[in-house]
Structures are given as structure tokens and as C-alpha cells.
Amino acid sequence: EDQVTQSPEALRLQEGESSSLNCSYTVSGLRGLFWYRQDPGKGPEFLFTLYSAGEEKEKERLKATLTKKESFLHITAPKPEDSATYLCAVLRNQFYFGTGTSLTVIP
Amino acid sequence: AAGVIQSPRHLIKEKRETATLKCYPIPRHDTVYWYQQGPGQDPQFLISFYEKMQSDKGSIPDRFSAQQFSDYHSELNMSSLELGDSALYFCASTRKSAGGPLFGPGTRLTVL
User: Fold this and answer.
1) Which pLDDT value is given to residue A2?
2) A31/A9 Cα distance (integer angstroms)
3) pLDDT reported for residue B98
4) Which of B:60-99 have CB within 8 Å of A?
5) Among the CATH numbers 3.40.50.360, 3.40.50.1100, 2.40.160.20, 2.60.40.10, which is that of A4-106?
6) Average pLDDT score over chain B
7) B62 Cβ neighbours under 8 A, 6+ residues apart
8) CA nearest A89 in B: which residue?
9) Which chain A residues are Cβ-neighbours of B109 within 8 angstroms?
């Protein structure tokens, strides 16, 4: 069965404390992996698309990497405004979302 | 740049009533997705359209139907509303095989 699992479910970091979020998947025939940021009550905001193992994308304090079975979202020196839920989604015939990681960055 | 537009942004209905949610995708995007997101849950795929034809169907109740019109806007019709239908409903659009879908701001449906 196709599955997308994100860990941890919740993460609390001190401002400036770097960490990584994990997205593992068992979807066969992957056509792409996508990271989104979602603030409460708002639509997911697109961050990155990764298509092949070994690919990396960066944007400000965020860096996404992809292997054959998982993706990592690395957050370097996070700030309180990075607090949000981070969702990953994989594309096969449709987009399958993980359950998200709720990130809280404490000043 | 233009984003995905959804209307209304908030909707309050009584049980057993009907509701229609509208989505206007980004210009030149040919694929539209509808998602339902309950509190604290990840978005659940309902249905998608590619070039005005239904392309995939997820966990959409039989009480719900959707279509995409000639101008590419899409409508999600929900009948016999139940309390459990209260959720955020997101529409997202993309150009096929051109990256992740871009989401609209959502419609918050409350069923009383």
C-alpha cells in the first residue's frame, strides 16, 4: 500500500538550533516529492519539488534532499517565523500527503 | 502573480443542506485538485480534473460531486451535509507534470 510517513509529528527548537524533518515513502513509481509549509487555517504553501534521488533544493534556511526511500527537510538556524506545519507529498497518479510535522521555534 | 482563488472563504450550513464551493485555478493550469482537511489532519484527496475531465477520484463521498467547466474553474457540490463535513476545503492547481500543485486559501465549511 502506498504510504507517506513524516517524523517527528512535532518538533520544538530553540531559535538557531538546526534540525531535520523526515519524510519516508513507499509509493512505487514515484513521479516527484513535494514539500509544503502550512500555517493554521491557510492553504499549504509550496516550497520544493524533488524528482530524483540525490537531488537537493535550497531556499533561505531550508534545504530539501531526496533519496530512494525518503526525503529530509533541513532547517538551519531557524527563526520563530519558521514555526508552521511542514507537509510532504508524493506524486504517483495523485498526490499523497504525509501527516505533517508541526514545528515550533522558540525565541 | 495570480494565485488560486476559492470562494466563498467561509460557509456556514445546517445539516442536510447543500453547499457549492468554487475554485478558479491559476491561468494556464490544466489540472485541478480538491482536498478536504479536518482539524489537525493532513489534506485528504477528494477528486481531480485534467483538461475538464475527471482524472482521479479519492475518498469523496457519494453525496459530493464536482466538475470542471470550459473556463477551467471547478465547483464542488456537497449535498445532505453532515456535521462531519465541517472542514477546510482546498483547491489546488498545476500544469500536468510541471511540479507540485499550488493551493488556494481554502473554504472553511461549518455544518451546524
Assistant:
1) 66
2) 25
3) 66
4) 88, 90, 92, 97, 99
5) 2.60.40.10
6) 92
7) none
8) B100
9) none
